[in-house]
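Q: Could you fold this chain for me?
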Amino acid sequence: MKWIGLTGGIASGKSTVSQILRDLGYEVVDADEIAKQVVQPGTPGLQSVISQFGTQILDAHGSLDRKKLGAIVFGNPEKLLILENILHPLVQNITSQKKDQLEMAGIPMAFYDVPLLFEKKLEKNFDDIVVITTSPENQRERMKQRDQLDELEISKRLQSQVPLSEKIQKARWIIENNGSIEDLGRQVRDLALHLQGLR
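A: Sure. Below is the predicted structure, expressed as structure tokens.
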């Protein structure tokens, strides 16, 4: 099975590209979704996070408040690393299981949407890598609208990742998400055909 890494910067459009791929019939494994699963109430993952960061990261129902946790770790590399060292092995374990299931099912090609592909040096795990890119202005505007973040929080989160310009240099395939959803859809369809060797 061809295993394709799908990455980009915060708010570059990975989720939209993933949904287009799913609509086209491709399998997409989402690292962010798995990261949410491993910190559900009652999980060892959540207990580990609480033991490091305290109960102030929980909401009134005992679930992880991602915004509160983000305010603690983004802009603090040491605390961000502690969090990633808790979550990353848990996410990788489930990802490996999902990949094995897809291979056993005879799926010829699947995508893994993983924001920290380069940050965690996962390049060697993939047959090919796709970077979704957008302008810094679009990134900031989407983070402001989608995540309700102020300029300081946006800057902290952007600084926690490898710059998009560096990611572009490391990838074989680039999707530019600066236009319409129709344009994005065309790029994704063309890329999927290329990756399958049909173009």
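A (continued): The two ends are 18 Å apart (CA to CA).
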